[in-house]
Specification:
heterodimer; A: 105 residues; flat; B: 262 residues; alpha/beta; Rossmann fold; 7-stranded parallel sheet; 7 strands
Chain lengths: 105, 262
């Protein structure tokens, strides 16, 4: 899981080290979580609701909140990118029996 | 549609197309109609619209998240006031990316705000291509092709392009009348507000100096131009507000690229 949410780097600046480091996980599937704009992340944290509720402009009680349209847009785009990554690797199948069955077959 | 307000978004792919002139005309039209429109200038460098309405216009730099919030959160805010955005050519991509990522059209419509894109193509082929892409990217948004009479017709090579034909065939059109070069320069030099100018009395003698410093000939020329441009804006606004209005030049479904290829 390469999590770029806080602008982490993964030894990309040193190809040899990068290769050696990820050689340890050769059979693993790589998932990239993109960076979320700092202000959007901060406001979603302060709202104390799931990202999906923040995007839907709901507060913790399910009432209409007053979240910024722009920040909701940033979170929505980020969620779309993250869930696309989950879909790409077939995360649900991997976590469920379907994945096991498929692999066994 | 009583209570509905418009968010006029004036955009073009390149600079020097008459964007700010159209934006100021829209603002002045709304002011003279008794409103106090929200005005946004996305050109944080030249700030030409802001210079015309210094106490009312907001300059926003779209590379800054707080400015993005000030712009789009206000544009979608429930209010009966009109909104005008002058989209600088270098902010073009960023502005429409944000419009998409925020789902602005849906949000605005839910607050009874009608977003309208006024797109000004120039004589270059890429400006027509960008116009088609823009129109097709926001099918739920009113899209008006602005013909700036100041421009000559594009060359034959451009006229043969499909994007040019699609833009020419677009039903919703707005004609921006030509204004004499000398008057344009005088307007730019003086940062003259059109609404202030129109509220000045017409000099009967013709030789008394007007408070704006324009010569009588220029004043007559400008006044005639303002009448024409306001008439056009009024026609557009009336048709936009009236869903069941007459089948005029801005109603109907715009032809697609596929229609014109057939």
């Amino acid at each position: 899981m390469k999590n770029f949410i806080n602008e982490t780097s993964f030894f990309e600046w040193n190809p040899q080290l990068h290769k050696r480091y990820f050689k340890l996980a050769m059979d693993a599937v790589e998932v990239t979580i993109p960076k979320l704009n700092e202000m959007a992340f901060e406001q979603a944290e302060l709202a104390g609701v799931p990202f999906s509720a923040f995007v839907a402009n709901r507060d913790a009680d399910g009432q209409t909140a007053n979240n910024s349209l722009v920040l909701r847009g940033y979170v929505r785009s980020w969620m779309n990118q993250a869930t696309s990554e989950y879909d790409r690797i077939g995360l649900i199948d991997r976590l469920s029996d379907r994945g096991v069955t498929t692999q066994a077959a | 549609m009583p209570g509905a307000s418009h968010a006029g978004i004036v955009a073009s792919l390149h600079g020097r197309t008459g964007k700010t002139l159209l934006a100021r005309a829209l603002v002045d039209y709304f002011i003279l109609s008794g409103g106090r429109p929200y005005i946004f200038d996305t050109d944080a460098i030249e700030r030409r619209l802001h210079a015309l309405f210094p106490s009312a216009a907001h300059v926003v730099d779209l590379t800054i998240v707080r400015d993005q919030m000030a712009l789009f959160d206000t544009l979608a805010k429930p209010s009966s006031e009109m909104r005008v955005v002058d989209v600088a050519y270098y902010s073009f991509t960023k502005f429409f990316e944000l419009m998409r990522s925020t789902d602005f059209i849906l949000e605005a419509q839910s607050h009874d705000i009608i977003p309208v894109i006024f797109y000004i193509p120039d004589r270059n082929a890429d400006s027509f291509e960008a116009g088609v892409v823009l129109r097709d990217s926001f099918p739920d948004c009113r899209f008006i092709v602005v013909e700036n009479a100041f421009f000559k017709k594009p060359n034959r090579h451009v006229q043969q392009r499909l994007a040019y034909k699609v833009m020419r065939a677009h039903n919703r059109r707005y004609i921006m009348p030509k204004l004499a070069d000398s008057v344009v320069e005088a307007l730019e030099d003086r940062n003259l507000s059109i609404s202030d100018f129109m509220q000045q009395p017409i000099s009967s003698g013709g030789d008394a100096p007007a408070p704006d410093g324009l010569s009588p000939d220029m004043s007559v020329e400008l006044r005639g131009w303002v009448f024409k441009i306001f008439q056009e804006i009024h026609g557009v606004m009336t048709a936009l507000a009236n869903k069941d209005g007459p089948p005029d030049h801005i109603t109907g479904t715009p032809p697609s690229v596929a229609d014109l290829e057939d």
